[in-house]
Amino acid sequence: MPNIRYANMCHWKSIPYRKIDNFRQFYYEDNTNSAYYSDWDNILKYQSALGFDGIEIAPWDLADILPLFGSPEAFTEFARERGVEVIGMFHGAHASHAADHFDEAVRSGREAVDTIVRFGGTYMNTCPTQNYFGTGPLSRDQVQQCAKVMNEIGRYATDRGVKIGLHNEFFCAINLPNHRELIESTDPKLVHYCIDTAQISILGEDLLTFYNDYHDRISTFHLKDTASANQPDSVRYSQDPEITDDGTRWFWEPGKGELDFKGLYRLLKQHEFKGWMSIEYDGSPDMLASMAMTRYYLDNELRPIYD
Amino acid sequence: MNSQALAISLDLINRHYQEPNRNRYESRYFWEELYTLIAASGFSAVEMPYEPVWQFGGRSGVPLNRYCVNTKYGTATEYRAALSAGGIHQVSGVTFDPNLFMRNDNLDFYFGASGHFANEALGHAADMGAAYFAISPSPYYGRIAQYHPDLESKQAAFTERTVQLLTGLAEKAQELGVTLVLRNEYWSLFGGPRILPLLDALPATVKLDVDTASLFVAGISATDFIAAHIDQIGCVHLTDTDFVDTQEVWKSPNPEFPHVQATQVFRDPGTGSVDLAEIAALLERLDYSGPLVCSARQTRDPFRALLRTRVMLNNLQN
User: Fold this and answer.
1) Which residue in B23, B67, B254, B301 has the most chain A C-beta atoms within 10 A of its own C-beta, making it the best mutation to test that interface?
2) How near does any CA of chain B get to the CA of A123, in Å?
3) Ramachandran region of residue B58, left (φ > 0), alpha (ψ -120 to 50) or beta?
4) Residue B182, φ and ψ in degrees, nearest 5
């Protein structure tokens, strides 16, 4: 068993079919590649064929997956039959910095944990609160309030075999000035950390230093590259910066940006990381191509360092 | 038929389903180029779906709600100026469907959220200078049944709350000078002729929005339906399809993607089996002068669909 197993963070948009039985006929309706991206049967087989044995779903997938499959358990079984396991789900802990939102933030977090358990997952990577714009800067008390919510959700999750991992975006109200303060204000036994390699680099953390400093808190990774590290406040604190007006991409496939992934893998080896690593392709125009490109890079550049 | 007066719906952009290159659809640059391409294909008016989903999660590059428009352009007026600069001089109408809010077994949530965002969408329609606000009066029948297996027994109560919501919208629409029209999708709780009692329960200012493909899917003659209800029709969507629902797909949770057999339900106008020429001729004979909208929803290629639609309209005139 390798030390690292690879998953995909699900960035597929809605997939309307479970399995297309009339594939050729469907293709011939307009002779386009839509048929290739329209059923979970093929999407999961693409993953499996490229060695991504896990999928991390997102809460916005549920509105489509549940009517299509009937239940989380049915989706999990369908994926398992194709060699893919559901490792967890992303969660946004909206307004967890607000004291008057405590009950709602915890309730919502617990519901997400329950959903993950039904999918058979064990990770809940959690964005600690909403965007900076319109919310930040947070006071020290508000950061502590976030930590309180994370600890509470973390306690519930831990009791059910789920690890919550803080997952920071570069544009969140938890941002460079209070990123580490939040981590250090949470209980290490209950709250872990998911390093999104591109997000924290754009935020202004040095990827290798950050991993070195917090390696014992790291539950999993979102592995993606960037050519835009250390963005200024004016970008990170702006309104809705994730999708740019001119199509500029923040995120690239591993190896297509500027992050030192070989250095990271040497540190993973040093700290003997064991667990899942999710690859993320947000911003990709072609997720299947990105997946194949990434597999080549992993097999030829990173796995020889640490596997 | 003056085909220059027709609008094209922006639902031709496949915002929600997976396909290569769809990431472009979330950035402002894509839409601003699109307007010029729409104009180049002979349309100067567009219809806009109103989609609250883009308000959540910071994806405000998709200009399909008030939040996104205000985020990127400041005001509706400035956005309309940007449209005009791209060759789009009119927003004919705004559409709204409440499927996003049928996501649990709480009807108070559904009616509360749908009412809130429908009101916002109606206000946005007025801001955009739209002539009509086209609302789907229910989510997918099968999506309701997914969360409310006892739907049949709840139908009267559901209808009553729908009437209440739509009556409020009708009053506001009248104040704003916008015509409220009810969409008539085949998958609706109020699809096909089931919409007529609902329409009768609403103020006379509320009109029907005929969708030609939806009638075809339901096995209803569009020409007969239009001829019978011409006085109640406030909008016509020229849509095309090859699909006829013989297996109650309309009752499934994902009815635009038939589970019994994968198919593209809505074909690019002119490439399906709906006799759009006959329908256009009938509308002309009946002196219909309301909005006419072409829609290529579910197209595999929006730019090809624009030109296919123009070919279809050119053929209507010949």
Assistant:
1) B23
2) 21
3) left
4) -100, 125
The closest alpha carbon to B285, from B226, B205, B222, belongs to B226
Distance CA B41, CA B305 (A): 10
pLDDT of residue B5: 67
Q: Measured between CB atoms, which of B22, B57, B143 is closest to A67?
A: B143
Give A-chain residues touching B142 at CB under 8 angstroms.
67
* Phi, psi for residue A183 in degrees, rounded to 5: -55, -45
Ordered alpha helix ranges (H), chain A: 23-28, 40-49, 62-69, 72-81, 102-119, 140-159, 179-185, 197-203, 207-214, 233-236, 261-270, 287-297
Helical residues (DSSP H) of B74-106, grouped into ranges: 76-85
Mean pLDDT of chain B: 96
Whole-model pTM?
Answer: 0.95
A127: helix, strand or coil: strand
Q: What is the pLDDT of residues A165-201, one digit of tens each?
A: 999 999 999 999 999 999 999 999 999 999 999 999 9
Asked if residues B141 and B191 have their Cβ atoms less than 8 Å apart, the reply is: yes
Residue B139 sits at the vertex; the CA angle it makes with B134 and B141, to the nearest 5 degrees, is: 130
Contact A17 B261 (CB under 8 A): no
Domains within chain B, CATH numbers bracketed: 3-317 (3.20.20.150)
User: Is B93:B125 a contact under the CB 8 Å cutoff?
Assistant: yes
Report d(CA A269, CA A300) in Å as an integer: 16
As a whole number of angstroms, the distance between CA A47 and CA A49 comes to: 5
Q: How many CB atoms lie within 10 A of CB B231?
A: 8
Cross-chain CB nearest to B26 (options A39, A60, A243) = A243
Distance from CA of B108 to the nearest CA of A (A): 18
User: Within 10 A of B303 (CB to CB), how many other CB atoms are there?
Assistant: 14
What chain A holds in terms of domains, given with CATH numbers, is: 4-302 (3.20.20.150)
Cβ–Cβ below 8 Å for B27 and A245: yes
Which contacts of A72-78 are long-range, i.e. CB under 8 A and separated by 24 or more positions?
A: A72/A115, A72/A118, A72/A119, A73/A118, A73/A119, A73/A120, A75/A40, A75/A119, A76/A119, A76/A120, A78/A18, A78/A40, A78/A44
Instruction: Tell me the β-bridge partners of B93.
Output: B47, B132
Considering only the beta carbons, identify the residue of B16, B29, B143 that sits closest to A245. B29
> Tell me: the pLDDT tens digits for B185-227?
999 999 999 999 999 999 999 999 999 999 999 999 999 999 9
Using CA atoms, how far apart are residues B4 and A295, in angstroms rounded to an integer?
51
H or E element, residue A91 = strand A91-92
Q: Which residue reads 């309307």 in tokens?
A: A16
**Any idea what the Cα angle at residue B185 is, between residues B200 and B301, rounded to 5°?**
150
For A195, the 3-state DSSP assignment is strand
Residue B268's alpha-carbon distances to A16, A36, A37, B136, B264, in angstroms, are 19, 20, 19, 21, 10
> How far is the CA of B209 from the CAs of A157, B137, B273, in angstroms?
49, 11, 20
Distance CA B86, CA B40 (A): 10
By C-alpha distance, the chain A residue nearest B145 is A67
Q: What is the DSSP code (8-state) at residue A225? A: B
A57, A22, A18: which is closest to A39 by C-alpha?
Answer: A18
